[in-house]
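To whoever picks this up:

The parser on our side crashed when reading a file containing two proteins. I've narrowed it down to the boundary between the first structure block and the second sequence. Both blocks are reproduced below exactly, byte for byte. First block:
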Amino acid sequence: MAAAGPGAEAECMRPAHAPCPVGPRPARGVHLTELLVVVVVLAVLVSLALPALGTALEQLQSDRLRMQLHSALNQARAAALSRRRTIGICPSPDGLTCGDDWSHGWLLYQPGHDGSTAPFLHQALTPRRRLAARSTTGRPALEFRANGRSHGRNARILICQHGRAQAEVVVSNTGRVRSQRLDGDSGC
């Protein structure tokens, strides 16, 4: 449709097979009811996803502690090898004394001949709710000799959440550190 004169309607820019619209154009907005339906659907989806997200976050916390412990134990062994002295590592909430829960942090120290200890590195961690890491009974601290070997028998540190074992870090007599996730079926 061509314009007939100055007062004529503007030319329609549609393809030949599509008719030009006649009359007022329809509104292109979103109605409030449509918006509310979308918000409700999103709220339902989020409420269904939150429990799974919480479980995933707890697993990430457990994995993070497992990897940090693995690294710290390797660091203690490397310090013993490089200094050619016995180096100990124990759980420590304050960096001054040894405790029993590895989830609060740890302390690397050099044992003295008189039974004293000289701390040289403290790693403090932000305590996580419902997360605990305990050593094998009777083995609260670990010591690596100058040759990198560990004193005593194998040591095992269990990382637990909600009373279930999530991961473990094991130190063999040779000083080798390994860690793995657990299925969470066994108790702590």
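<<boundary where parser fails>>
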Amino acid sequence: MKYALFICTPADGEELGPEDLADDPRFTSYVQEVRERGTVIGGARLRPASDATTVRVQGDEVLLGDGPFVESKEYVAGIDIIEVADLDEAIALASRHPAALGGGSVEVRPLWE
């Protein structure tokens, strides 16, 4: 089954860029593990929520808002698309993600196939 892992970071936490993650052994060992297993089939690191633009349409008018759609204690910092046998395997993988171990969370959501 395919799942999306929404990697969530505390809104008041330190923003880690790609260079920071490349130097962090927790992230590099996790990335190496999932690459060797071939479970991650796509994904991306996202810029901070403060860089987001929310688009709404009311009638013929396009309304733009700065920041994320919802104010939250956490924001989505990245998305991984994984392919595993079942939800238990997806949860096991998410529970080893450095974000989950470091005060954030990982939302596991099945994809329509």
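After patching the parser it read the second block fine. The chain has a mean pLDDT of 89. The chain is about 25% helix and 40% strand.
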